[in-house]
Every structure is written in structure tokens, then in C-alpha cells.
Amino acid sequence: MEQASVRNLTSQLAEDMGWLEDHCRRQGDHTSQAGELRLAEALVRNTIGPFLDHQPPEPLHVAVVGGAGVGKSTVANMLSGTSAAEANPQAGFTRHPVAYTSANGPLSWSAHAGFLGPLQRLSEPSPANLDADVYQVRRLPAEAETFSLLPRFVVWDCPDMTTWASSGYVFRLLEVAALADVIVYVASDERYNDEAPTQFLQMLLQAGKPVVCCLMKMREENAPAILDHFQKEVLSKVGAGTVPCLAIPHLTAEQLADPVRSAGKYRIPLLNQITVLGEPPEAARRRSVRWAANYLQTAQDRLLGAVRRDLAALHEWRRVVLIGQVEFDSRYRREYLASEKFERFDEALVRLIDLLDLPGVGRMLSNALWALRTPYRLLKGWAVKALRRPEAPGLPERPVLEQALAGWLDSLRKEAVRRAGSHPVWAYVEDGFNRDLGDLARQRFEDGLRNFRLSQADEIDRTARAIYEELEKSPARLNTLRGAKFGLDLAGIAGSVVAGGINWHDFILVPLAASMTHQLIEWLGKGYVDSQREGARNRQQNLETKHVSGPLAEWLAQWPATGGSAYERLNLALRRIPSGIRQLNEAVTQALELNSH
Ligand SMILES: Nc1nc2c(ncn2[C@@H]2O[C@H](COP(=O)(O)OP(=O)(O)O)[C@@H](O)[C@H]2O)c(=O)[nH]1
Ligand SMILES: [Mg+2]
Questions:
Q1: Is residue 296 in some structural domain?
Q2: Partners of 156 in beta bridges
Q3: Highest mean pLDDT among 105-119, 315-329, 463-477
Q4: Taking Cα atoms as reference points, which of 286, 287, 70, 274 lies closest to residue 154?
Q5: How many domains does the chain have?
Q6: Residue 570 in contact with residue 561, Cβ under 8 Å?
């Protein structure tokens, strides 16, 4: 992959995850997922990004983490061989990450674009309790190198792991934890089982970070028991396989003041553990990168799971919209289409019947037959009038559609109000209705209606015309039908003459036969036209769905995720993250292979 596209990929992925993280935090109820997302995005920008950008493996990074007041700064001092970190009895003193590096070491590692994400590097030295999204780098005198991890490692003293909700500095710590090639997890005897730090520890282990544990401040004689207890009660529960654990019993004031000379007994084994994990640096860094990429892949579902509730709510909204659409369509059918006659079809029927009469000489015969049918026609006209049930006049189309729309929008609004407490999507929709969602929907409806009208006029006309045009266009078929009808007429007349001989009965039977054959033809024609009419009704329903209710339903269902809303951004992030993770994994695999040759 090209260098530029690798950079785009990492920054896009980190940005999308960052957006999800903020989204989770805004929702308030899944801050631990926000924490995982933060770790994931920080792995992308602080570990994978620089590696793909060919950053050299040295210096490695070691981060000292743990609960409040457990002795992190004290341990950081042991690692850096100084007392530069402010060990402070006040819990939560360290509010932003502080890096300790050798005066001679390179600083280019901090120059990578996006390094530590939102944390700005402080240019002026400041106390560690400055509470802001910053980090600082303290360069230690060269002598510190003699008895410490410097310059091979940068030592990071971090803010406390207290609670997920704590005023935001937990996220600063995660930024550095993601960067680290080695984690030193510090716990003190009185609080090594605290819930939040244990969760953090578990998360770091899941992310494949090599961890060394330091248990602090116990009485020397209690150390073995406490180490044992910690293994059983904490490490085995978080699924940690073999995590090296060291005890650093309560130090004297003198040891605290000068850990290099006075506390070597505890310090040297700790330095050894970390050095082993960083040897050789290339391998250590490659392992960090491999694990980071694996973690993204395996934790993906859980990471995106944080927003599953949002997706479920959006899905539910869509379902409710579609239920409304079904009701809208069936109201249109019930209240309008079912009673609509489509008069064009009656005209078409008349023309169809007319067509079946013979032209030319045949016309005269037809006229004669027509005359013969006069008594029947008069009788029928009278009967039809007498028997016709008064029909309920159908409502005009527009008011029916308008009422159906009002009903639809009303039910959506009620549903939104009812569910507003269950998920912010519903509150968002309710708010939309309080503003202009109803008006916007009505505008959409009008647009749809206009398109519907255009296609509809055309459609009915065409179907009705097709009824007789088709026949007109095929003279052979027309003539066959005409012949058949005429034949029927004659047969009927001849039949009645034969049956009764020629006498006065014929004045009744012949017109009756002519009328009956005509009625038969009319019925056949009417059946045909009626089936065409029903077909037209169905097509009209489909056109309505296609132009009016369908587009409107789609628009309404999408509405919460459009117009720059949070849900629009959410959808975008959800689309991009999985493919981003896959591509990043491919790039990592490729780069690791290249590197190993
Ligand atoms: N006497 C004594 N005090 C300690 C020991 N470890 C830490 N402390 C003190 O406990 C307090 C908190 O330690 P610190 O390293 O600042 O903890 P942090 O908040 O985790 O960075 C400081 O006042 C330290 O001096 C120890 O082994 N012996
Ligand atoms: Mg501290």
C-alpha cells in the first residue's frame, strides 16, 4: 500500500473510532465501551500508524499504570533512576501523562502525525497535576541512564485508573497505554482488588500488552502470601496466563528518596523483567504491532456492539414507519380504489361492443338485428334502472390520501412520544415533529402525488384504450369475432324459426334470440373489461406505492440518519470501520513480512 494511503487509512479509522467513542460517552451509559474504543483508536494512531510509517523501534515505551495513590510515581522513579516524578500523598495527583527520557535520546517518536491523538505536548515544564488534555516530556540528565531503562525506553508516569466516568483523565491514560510496548501495573496491598483498575488491566491484557505487576507497600513478611492472593484473586480472574509479579514491600523514607542506591534489591529485578520483554527492540515492537492489529480484529464486534442499541432503535423506527405505510396503502384501497369506477373503462366497453358489429353490408343486417332487439333493450333499460342499488359515492382521491397521510404521521408522532424515554432516537424523532418533520413529510407527499398523477392519467388511458385498440389493430381477429357474433345472431334467429315454424311467435322469439346473443356478447365483453378494470385498480395501487407511500416511507425511515445528524455519522462510521480494520490488518501483515526478510 502507498504511504499516503496508509496514512489516510490510519487517520480515517482513528477518526471514525474517535467519533464512536465520543458518541458512547455522550450517551452516558456505556463509558467502558468508550474506553475500549479509545484504546483501539489509540492503538491505530500510536502503535500501528508509526510502524507502518517506518518509525524505528527504539525507544520502546513503558507505561506505569494503576489505581490512585498505589505508588505509580514511586515506581516510575525506580525505572528512570531518578526522583523526577512527583510522588505525592494526594491521591489522583498526576493528571496527565509525563514521559521521562534521556537527555541524549531522540525525540522524533513524538513527531509522528496524530501521536497521542487529542493530547497536546506541553512546551513549558509544568507540574504533573495540570488537568488538561496534554502530555509532557521531561528529559533527564545523562547520569540517569547508568542505572535505569533509559535511553532504550521512554518511561511514562500516568494518571490514575480510577473510574470510567472520572473527569476525563482516564482517557489520557489509555492513549499512553496503547502506545506502550510494556505495561507496569502497580497495585498496593490495600487496594489491589479495586474494580476499575482490574477492568483496565483485563482490557490491556486482551489487547496483548505484556504486563509486569508490582505489588506495593506490604510488610515484607506478608509479600509471598499477598503475591499468591493477587495471582488467585485478580490475575486468574482476568484470564492472565503468566504475568510476572513482583513485591516491593513498604520502603523507608530513605529508600524513597534515593531508589537507585537504596532500593536496588527491588529495583533490579523489576528492571530485569522489563528489559527481557524489550529484547531485542525490533521484535518487541513487531509484537506490539501484531497484537494491536489482532486486537482490532477480534474486538471489532464488541467495539461496534457499543452502538448496537442505536442500530436496534433505528431499525425499530423503520419498522414502525413501514407498518404505517401498510395502513396508508390499505386505506387508499378501501376508501378510494374499491369504489372507483374508472369511467374510461365503461366507454371502452361501449366501443368494444360497437366494434363487434359488422361494417358495410353487414351493417344493414346489424341494424336489422338492432331493431329486432328494441323490445329487449327497452325492457333491459327499465330493469337496470329499477334494480340498480344506489351506490355510495366514492370519495375523491386527494382527500382520501391526505387523511391517510395525516393518520400515518399522527401514529408516528404518538409512537415517538411514547418511546422517547427508551432511546434517544425516539426523542430525536419527537423533537423533529415538534419542529418541521411533519411539514417536510407533507412536502415529500405532494411531490410524490404529482409524479403519481402524471403516471396515473397515462396508465388508465392506455389500459382502457388497449381494450379496443388491440382488436382494431388485428383485423383478422376482429373479423373472426364479428363473424362469430353475427353467426350466433343468425343461429339464434334461425333456431327460433326452425323450432316454431314461421308464424306470429317469431315476432317474439326472433327478437328474443337476437337480444340473448347480444347480451351474451355484452357479458363476455363486460367480464373482460371488468377484469381489465381490476387489473388497472391493482396497477394504480402499485403506482401509488411506487410514487407516494414508498418514497415517503423510505424518506421517513432514513430521516434520523440524515441532515448531518449523529445517526448519519454513526452509519458512516459503521460502514467504514470494518473495512478499515481489514485493510489495516493486511497492511500490517505485509509490512511485518517485508521486515522479517
Ligand atoms: N513510606 C512509603 N511510602 C510510599 C511507598 N510507596 C509509595 N509511598 C507514598 O505513597 C504516596 C503515593 O505514592 P505515589 O507514587 O505518588 O502514588 P501514585 O499516586 O500511584 O503515583 C506518596 O506519598 C509516596 O511517597 C512506600 O513503599 N513506602
Ligand atoms: Mg503519581
A1: no
A2: 63, 99
A3: 315-329
A4: 274
A5: 2
A6: yes
Kindly list the protein residues whose Cβ atom lies closer than 6 A to any atom of ligand 1: 66, 68-74, 87-89, 93-94, 216-217, 250-251, 256
**Cα distance between residue 64 and residue 160, in whole Å:** 10
Give the pLDDT score at 351. 79
Amino acid present at 334: R
Q: Is 501 left (phi over 0), alpha (psi -120 to 50) or beta?
A: left
pLDDT tens per residue, range 16-50: 999 998 888 887 766 778 889 999 999 999 999 99
Nearest CA to 180 among 217, 144, 205? 205
> Is the CB of residue 267 less than 8 Å from the CB of residue 76?
no
* HSE of 403, CA atoms in CB hemisphere, 13 A: 12
Q: Which of 72, 79, 80, 88 to mutate to test the pocket of ligand 1 (most atoms within 8 A of CB)?
A: 88
Q: Which atom of ligand 1 is nearest to the CA of 249?
A: 27
CA 574 to CA 17: how far, in whole Å?
9
Least confident window among 88-97, 121-130, 440-449: 88-97
Q: In this structure, are 206 and 78 located in the same domain?
A: yes
The domain that contains 154 carries what CATH number?
Answer: 3.40.50.300
Q: Kindly tell me the burial class for residue 333, based on how many C-beta atoms sit within 10 Å of its own C-beta (0-12, 13-18, 19 or more).
A: middle
pLDDT at 258: 85
Q: Is the pLDDT of residue 409 over 60?
A: yes
Whether 500 shows a pLDDT value over 70: the answer reads no
Instruction: Please provide the size of the chain in residues.
Output: 597
The alpha carbon of 141 and the centre of ligand 1 are apart by a number of angstroms equal to 23
Is the same domain home to 111 and 204?
A: yes
Longest CA–CA span in the chain (Å) reads: 145
Q: Name the grid cell of 137.
A: 516530556
Which residue, of 237, 264, 281, is where some domain finishes? 281
What is the residue-averaged pLDDT of the chain? 87
Extended beta strands in 49-163, E state = 60-66, 98-102, 120-121, 134-140, 153-157
Rounded Cα distance between 503 and 524, Å, is: 32
Same domain, 192 and 267: yes
Distance CA 362, CA 352 (A): 17
Nearest atom of ligand 1 to the alpha carbon of 89: 23
Most confident listed range (3-12, 402-411, 514-523, 563-572): 402-411
Are residues 262 and 332 both part of a single domain?
Answer: no
pLDDT of residue 102 exceeding 80: yes
pLDDT on residue 388: 58
Rounded Cα–Cα distance for residues 339 and 346 (Å): 15
Q: Is residue 581 part of a domain?
A: no
In this structure, are residues 98 and 157 in contact, taking their beta carbons and an 8 Å threshold? yes
Closest protein CA for atom 23 of ligand 1: 89
